[in-house]
Amino acid sequence: MRSATVLMRFICGAAFLLTLAWASPAHAQIGIGEWARTDKDGGGMTMTVAACCKGGYRLTYHVPTANGQPPVVITVDLPMDGTEVPTMTAGKPTGQTMSAKRIDDRHLTGAVKQNGELTLTNTATLSADGKTLTVEDTLTGTKLKVVEIWTKK
What we know:
- This protein is mainly β.
- It has one helix at residues 2-20; strands at residues 33-37, 46-52, 56-63, 72-78, 85-89, 92-102, 107-114, 117-126, 132-139, 145-152.
- The longest helix has 19 residues, at 2-20.
- The radius of gyration is 14 Å and the shape is globular.
């Protein structure tokens, strides 16, 4: 179960940062659509980004599972104002919240909390063409870093 929690942290952290990259009017619609995690550890994860919540974004991730089971679906509605927001599975809070700060149109930082404890920080860089997002996740209290690559479909 611990590995599933870590996986959810990475997925949600990356996806959250992805949407924040386009909070400025010039990039407001670039993030809308389908994305796939394409690094070697992506495992077939996909994400849909849609407009919601008064200028914010709804992220819906599909995380493949083993043994032919349906994917885990994780959803978060982000108001894009820097407040912590809950992630949801099957309409129920997961105990995880996210917050982020945009540095500029292509760079941002974020944090993920699990049950109120900071568990993950990340930085993200959007490519100049808006088609690739590179996210570096760092587990709090460790030196473990994971680099994720998300590609727009």
